[in-house]
Specification:
Shape: globular
CATH architecture: Orthogonal Bundle
Radius of gyration: 11 Å
Number of helices: 5
Number of strands: 0
CATH class: Mainly Alpha
CATH superfamily: DnaA protein, C-terminal DNA-binding domain
Number of domains: 1
CATH topology: Chromosomal Replication Initiator Protein Dnaa, Chain: A
Strand content: under 5%
Helix content: over 70%
Length: 78
């Protein structure tokens, strides 16, 4: 299921799906990860803890990404 979300994010942002899973602070990667986290947590009901394990980051980092992704989705009407 999460792979499908990654494909949707990649399609919306015009990037490769692998970039959604990439670590780092490149602006497009951060945007992709944030949108992914928002959709996965708020729309699919995944836990931030589950995503933190998948990304190899802390749970609070995922929560921050969810908030950032919500703002991106609202502003971009995604």
């Amino acid at each position: 299921m999460l792979d499908k979300v990654a494909l949707c994010v990649a399609d919306v942002l015009g990037i490769e799906p692998e970039q959604v899973w990439a670590l780092g602070k490149h602006p497009l990667t951060v945007k992709a990860r944030s949108l992914f986290c928002y959709w996965a947590v708020r729309q699919l009901g995944c836990s931030a803890t589950e995503l933190s394990r998948r990304f190899g980051v802390s749970q609070p980092s995922v929560s921050i990404s969810v908030k950032r992704g919500e703002k991106l989705a609202r502003e971009g009407r995604l």
